[in-house]
UniProtKB/TrEMBL annotation:
Name of the protein in its database record: Cell shape-determining protein MreC
GO BP annotations listed: regulation of cell shape
UniProt cross-references to NCBIfam families, sorted A to Z: PRK13922.9-3
Annotated organism of origin: Spirosoma taeanense
Keyword Cytoplasm: no
UniProt record similarity statement: Belongs to the MreC family.
InterPro entries noted in UniProt: Cell/Rod_1, Cell/Rod_MreC_2, MreC, MreC_beta-barrel_core
Stretches of the chain forming a coiled coil according to its record: 60-87
Any GO CC annotation of this UniProt entry: plasma membrane
Keyword Mitochondrion attached: no
Amino acid sequence: MGELVDFFIRSRNFILFVLLEVLSFYFIINTNNYWGATYFNTSNRYAAQVLAWSNAVNEFARLRQVNADLAMENERLNAQLTQLLQSKPAAPAEYAADSAFASRFKFTVAKVVNNTTQFANNYITIDKGTDDGIRPGMGVISPTGVVGRVKSCNRHFSVVTSILHSSFLVSSALTKAEEIGTARWDGVDPHLIKLNDISLTKPVAKGDSVVTSERNSTFPPGILVGRVRTVGVQPNRVFHDITLDLATNFSSLAFVYVVENRLQTEQEQLENQIETEK
């Protein structure tokens, strides 16, 4: 307390000067209309600027929560859309899928915590594991398209084999030509992927959509793989040379959806049984 008193005594001249300056400034503003208006306009402008900066900071701080909320909403909408499409597939009018088949896909939202794109074989790490019902073999998609397949899990994390992997294959269908082929990355550009085994007899045009086909048990059918970028002819072969623009931008991948096919094990057990009986 004594030190504080000593400080005021030593600084009394400076403190008096400041008080007189403030008092003078107060009288100028309150007795002169021009300077009063100038002061209030200036203070309001700076106050508005500070408020705008404050709002911008608050909005930026909330972006993480906003993105998480949007991911959860997309998870719900994906489940509803997939169930609707599976209950009314392109089939004869008398055909109707049973409820178990139509609702066989379950979606779990997860956050990407690590991701590579620069190698020949790339992997993604997500923040969901066996405690969240994730297991190897499940498909992984993004809000825009195919991402990969779960390779391994522990309780809280999973490693996903990216579609940007030399051995990753996706059964894919050209929507206009209604032809099924195989999408496979050639290890060059992380924005492009090849579509193989499309016959030259099938018309293919730039911009055509390529989606997951009905002939796989990992991904729901109709998930976008990419769009045709270029169409050529493979030398001495009867197939198109097709390059796609990947639907998923892996450089900005933040949230993904792990897809569980509840009937996958049942389907594969039956198919394996038939194979062993041949």
